[in-house]
Amino acid sequence: MQLELMKSSAILINTARGAVVNPDALYRALSSGKIAGAALDVTQPEPIAMDSPLLTLDNLIIAPHIGSASRQTRDKMAQMAIANLVAGLEGNPLPYCVNPQVYSS
């Protein structure tokens, strides 16, 4: 990630994957004021080590990987899991398979 290219008023938000953001580079950018702040729902490693220097910063918010925890997303996740389970038990391809190419081999 090119944190040095960001404006000093920038606030970085990462809800994707912890590995998207280098924690050492993020610490340097935040502690030096290169960027104004950050909010993370994911970290690398996860969970974040309790002795991580990131935890000493007051311009960083870290949530415990719960960004998708809404009623709607949890309901949809349950529906998808049930559909996959039923399909698997019936010997059919899973409708919510991340790598469906496995069925063609």
From TrEMBL:
Limits of the D-isomer specific 2-hydroxyacid dehydrogenase NAD-binding domain: 2-67
Pfam families registered for this protein in UniProt: 2-Hacid_dh_C
Gene Ontology molecular-function annotations: glyoxylate reductase (NADPH) activity; hydroxypyruvate reductase [NAD(P)H] activity; NAD binding
A GO term from the CC aspect: cytosol
Keywords: Oxidoreductase
UniProt-listed PROSITE patterns: D_2_HYDROXYACID_DH_3
Family named by the database record: Belongs to the D-isomer specific 2-hydroxyacid dehydrogenase family.
Protein name, as recorded: D-isomer specific 2-hydroxyacid dehydrogenase NAD-binding domain-containing protein
Source species: Limnofasciculus baicalensis BBK-W-15
